[in-house]
Amino acid sequence: MTTKLRIVPLGGLGEIGKNMTVIEYDDEILIIDAGIMFPESDMLGIDIIIPDFTYLLDKKDKIKAVLVTHGHEDHIGALPHLMEQIHAPIYATPLTAGLIEVKLRQPRSSQAIEIIEFQAGDVLQIGLFTVEPFHVAHSIPDCVGFGITTPVGLIVHTGDYKFDHTPADSWPPDFAKLAEFSSRGVLALLADSTNADRAGWTPSEMVVLDAFDDLFREAPGRIIIATFASLISRIQQAADLAQKYGRKLAITGRSMRENAKMARRLGYLDIPDYLIIELEDAVRLPKKEVVIMATGSQGEPSAVMGRLARGRHRNLSIEEGDTVVFSAYPIPGNEETVFRTINQLFRRGANVLYERIAPVHVSGHASQEEMKLMINLVRPTFLIPIHGELRHLKRHAVLGRELGIAAEHIAVVENGTPLELDGESLDILPRLPGGYVFVDGASVGEIGWPVVRDRERLSQSGVVFAVVATNSQKQVIGRPEIISRGFVNPNESDDLLHGAAEAIVRAAEVYANSTSPLNEAIEDALSRYLYAETGRRPLVHVVVK
Amino acid sequence: MTTKLRIVPLGGLGEIGKNMTVIEYDDEILIIDAGIMFPESDMLGIDIIIPDFTYLLDKKDKIKAVLVTHGHEDHIGALPHLMEQIHAPIYATPLTAGLIEVKLRQPRSSQAIEIIEFQAGDVLQIGLFTVEPFHVAHSIPDCVGFGITTPVGLIVHTGDYKFDHTPADSWPPDFAKLAEFSSRGVLALLADSTNADRAGWTPSEMVVLDAFDDLFREAPGRIIIATFASLISRIQQAADLAQKYGRKLAITGRSMRENAKMARRLGYLDIPDYLIIELEDAVRLPKKEVVIMATGSQGEPSAVMGRLARGRHRNLSIEEGDTVVFSAYPIPGNEETVFRTINQLFRRGANVLYERIAPVHVSGHASQEEMKLMINLVRPTFLIPIHGELRHLKRHAVLGRELGIAAEHIAVVENGTPLELDGESLDILPRLPGGYVFVDGASVGEIGWPVVRDRERLSQSGVVFAVVATNSQKQVIGRPEIISRGFVNPNESDDLLHGAAEAIVRAAEVYANSTSPLNEAIEDALSRYLYAETGRRPLVHVVVK
After folding, report:
1. Is A215 helix (H, G, I), strand (E, B) or coil?
2. How high does pLDDT run on average in chain A?
3. Which one of A133, A403, B452, B540 is most buried, counting C-beta atoms within 10 A?
4. What number of other Cβ atoms are within 10 A of residue B491's Cβ?
């Protein structure tokens, strides 16, 4: 028997997380998660990034299931795109299924997609794979990892996890199941690496509850809490404290309202009706009787907190005495925007609490000591760090070696690099071509790096267009029309544009080079002139009529 | 006597630091520092930001001196611009003076500028002000704060400081002087707020030395250390350890080489000649015998570390076994770029150490307990938090109130807001117009927000230009010429551009509205067409010939 188990992490930028994993044996494939990534700062104008599904396109018939670990965007956000390409049922816990349903209701997904619910602890037979979801703690309820028994052995995929003994939903991770896997013998552990550079143990969600309790007791006026729209457990904590301290709760921001509604319907949010009010009513209540949960914890300008910070919210404005809480870490790359938003809120008179000055958020991911515990609980033959930038994967590998896993039994690979396992060895195959797909407006995959690089250049120095009329002798007729955007202040650049027009006329006069077209010769001359005058290099395009 | 002492913090974005302070009494003015700020991520294409000097322009004759606290860019970087506008001597300690000289050698500063050196502990009589520089510890040697005796009382400006008992240059801060000021009675304390949201006490530079010692002892091959070009003390630490462990030191990156040369000349860097080698020689030595100090700790693509990360350095390439150290914190907004650079270096086989995984850098600014010590040592009547974002200033004010300073004796103001002090009260005046000035290429102040906003839009969706030829009846002749940049992939957009041309012709056909020009009517129609087809809104400009 020469067939090996193939594991293909897909869907990142190499360095940013692993949002999708393909498990393949013979002609059966399982997919774990299908998430989006957020663009890096140099991916100008790109809305989101999705995994490149090319690897799966000629294997569609083999795909037996899409298993989902939990309902965060970086794990379910690409499902609408994936499910346009493949036909397979989605397996998820009830809350995750609810979040997926909210997501798939988007107009893009017109096909009927089968969603099969399971509970942590179930045993699912899917083709030749036996899939055993086990409960883990994270920053959203109803999260699982998967034990998957394959023909070559048992592999364990942690999903996103931390070992929180006192999670917000009082449902600690399933240590017993991990130990039981270990007793059966685990071939490979695929484990979350997000916090591999954080020493110690991630604080429990309980810490946040304590900080919130202080806050609710002492806040002199309204409390406005920004967090992720999917952070159901934080909404529950706020609701419990609202009840305790005699406040009413308003939830604002479309995505958070939808998620809360679904979570209440499914029983994952336990909030009595009388406690919840509309924002319009909240602004009329005494300030000491109000809590508002809002989106915009990443400083997104169009989310609730971004609009409040700029004084652009329709129903609500920040006032002296308000206490605003950022109950989220800035996602890397968002720090500046988040802190700017915080400064703007201070400027409007709010007192602003954020993670640096009060424990109003904790990470949902395991730190180093928890990662070691996971490895020692599961005792895998092979360790495959997933879900992290390369620096995290490398660090996770160091931890694995410290615990006695041989270096050649640890695979630090980036997305798109297939691994093959038999019972004894782990092979790293050459990286697949492609990588990830840009989504920009209605376009999925049509925009690539050349367009983004043009945007980069436009963003640095703008663009100058010139329309030059010539006669049949290629002499310039009249004054060239020059238009610039993002280059100079139009009201202060008369001299510059006058000089530019002269440079164009001169370039046409000396034009004698039949190997390049007249418009290119003029573009060269115009670019040189503009650089000499301003020290900047706008995109220059010349049309000769 | 009605004259009050006026203090004007100048030169930030409101929220980003205070890079310049004006002290004014009657017709005498002192300026403290003149630094640059780095642009925020939405200030596209802007190179640096300098303070707006407008306030000073009609008071040039009153300016008696520019006092400089230390040689970092955010304190001296705007001097070349300031000294073009005013005539006054610059006062600085020898190392700071050396760094200013390096800076002023830029071609922009053609005038002869007088630089007067002083030592911490000197007493300078400047007009009616008695200026007493006192030594503070920070992340560059030869730093001072200033005690300034004015007609209304003694004010103390800390500069950037921390209370490091074991600084790299073994010169601890001058506690005695601060206590002595206190015994004389301090009217106002202007104090560094950078780390106001950090609890505790900033670790000493000694911690870094210990971490570096471990690193030098254990690194299996070359050591490459990235830090700020001005971090003289880190260069000294690396040199000392190079000597201890039998390595040679190469310094690379233009700005770091210039600074190191000047600091050695002035005696602030004590490195024997035989220890220093050129990079060209370093690459030929056994790897265990080499340390390289380099620029690029912020992930700047054109600095040494950025080029190494992308494999684009002329003389040096990263190899398996190299240990790379980022001995700097990412400046807020740079996190993503720094971490991307770190990932790239890992990908090339280096082991990379950074602050998260080893104490290879410490902040140069006081944390909360040090800030409290400063307040209690100086015991000022008024507290004016400076040098920080608004969130830091607010937090600093909280600390001041906790120590018993009355709320009305603390002024949290943003740049451009003048304060007036007599012996008894502190008034906050209305904010000055203006704020800060963009420098972009050779242009200083000509580029404002309208241009930057155009760049923002260009960066999101690019630009579409169309040239439409019409006859005298305003009918379109021939096919409109359409050019796009940063909008669509030109090879995959034939259908779209064909449709766009049709939309233009249709718009011209139905054009009947003499209140707006034909080109605007076409722009509207073209924008609508493109949005309907792509969901994106490029800048659209139409020229009708």
Report:
1. helix
2. 90
3. A133
4. 7
